[in-house]
Amino acid sequence: MAAIVQVRPITDVPDGCRASMQPSDPDFYQDPYRFYAERHAVRPAFFWEEYGHWCFSDFKSVSALLRDRRFGRDILHVATRQEIGLPPPQPHTADFDLTEKYSLLNLEPPSHTRLRTLVHRAFVSRQVELLRPRIADIANAMIDGFETHGSAELIKDFAAPIPAIVIAEMIGLPAEMAPQLIDWSNRMVRMYMFGVGREVQRDANRAAADFTTYLRSMIAERRKQPREDLLSHMISAEQAGERLSEDEIISTAILLLNAGHEATVHTTGNAIKAILESGYDPRMLFADETATAATIEEALRFDAPLHMFTRYALEDIEYDGISLRKGDVVGLMLGAANRDPSRFTNPNTFDPLRSDGANVSFGAGIHFCIGAPLARLEMQIAMAILFERLPKLHLTEPPRYADVYHFHGLERLNVSW
Q1: Which end of the chain is more exposed for a tag (fewer CB within 10 A), N or C?
Q2: pTM above 0.85, yes or no
């Protein structure tokens, strides 16, 4: 399923709980935090008219609901399509839907537990730490490519290629495939946007089909000649005598590539923007590993890469005075929770020295981002190198966010030095 959407109308919304904002309105996606601040001031739990479902914007509720097993990413293990009004799969998105069928992002236990266990080993901190020299080499190579130009567009030239190359090499794909992987990823994740049209769906399906064909060829190669990479590991890994099917391997590889690329690109771009606009001296922010880690955590809080994560209610439930039926959708507002004034002092201020730091940018509970240790390490290394090598880095024009809500990232990041 490309995106979890409310299919059964909700009509019993109490007075004062409705809010209206068009996600594709430039005034909104350029600065969604004004809308979030209004919700925090009025009522953090609100019914978003355009989405047609309830949303939660306070840190406490979002953190709790991410862990609440009465809500899940999948619904068809506890209900039929007819029961909740979910339409049948569409033929024109069949290839895309197949890549989602076994996605860790959507599965619930026991399927989720089995699949995550088989791939988790590659993403634990001690394994990820081994990539430190390679990440530094890639970051330096990217800067080598534009340093003498005196200016660059840092999304295309820096933020995008680094995570794409790192995750591709982890899986076992050649670094030179990174531009093609980025293209497939960008086209596929548009399926998660609000109000997706049929042409976008068809294009995402074509990208998914091409991506799948490529991965099947790589899997065939690894079956003949295994290597020390994640693809070979997924082919050979066993748990209780079970192995991953080829479709499970493909779904997992695509999720890791898409999620491992998209979120890190957005967070890196957003973080560079925040630092350059903050007035802080980057030499202080990246003075040592402790300062660097604190800076990255504040960047994750301040301008998260993903602003809404949806879940199904798996049973009839009342939460925060709101009656939900099985199959109803709830939106967990990650970006809003990270700016909750009841949780953070001066939440709209970028402050890497704050003592109340925390964030839900990587989620929580069983669907906590498996690649979080890798994303953190990539950002810490790459950004420290960037500001060390280009200490006079500054913006040459106001950055603008792309129309990709509920993803939240910059179209371009033009800088010079």
Answers
A1: C
A2: yes
Supply 224's token pair.
Answer: 């003949």
pLDDT at 155 exceeding the cut of 90: yes
Cβ neighbours around 76 below 10 Å, total: 13
Are the C-beta atoms of 306 and 265 separated by less than 8 Å?
no
Per-residue pLDDT band for 240 (boundaries 50, 70, 90) equals: low
Burial class of residue 293 in the structure, from the number of CB atoms within 10 Å of its CB (0-12 exposed, 13-18 middle, 19+ buried): middle
Q: What's the fold here for domain 18-416?
A: Cytochrome p450 (1.10.630)
121-128's contacts with Cβ under 8 Å and 24+ in sequence apart are 121/233, 122/170, 122/230, 122/233, 123/370, 123/371, 123/373, 123/374, 124/373, 125/373, 128/373, 128/374, 128/377
Cα 311–Cα 319–Cα 65 angle in degrees, nearest 5: 40
pLDDT at 178 over 50: yes
Average pLDDT value over all residues in the chain:
93
Structural domain spans, the chain: 18-416
For residue 3, what pLDDT is reported?
Answer: 64
pLDDT digits (tens, 9 = 90+) for 47-60: 999 999 999 999 99
- Predicted local confidence at residue 98, as pLDDT: 93
Phi, psi (deg, nearest 5) at residue 333: -90, 90
323-358 confidence digits (pLDDT tens): 999 999 999 999 999 999 999 999 999 999 999 989
C-alpha span between 392 and 376 (Å, rounded): 24
Where b means 16+ CB within 10 Å and e means fewer, 117-134 reads ebbeebbeeeebeebeee
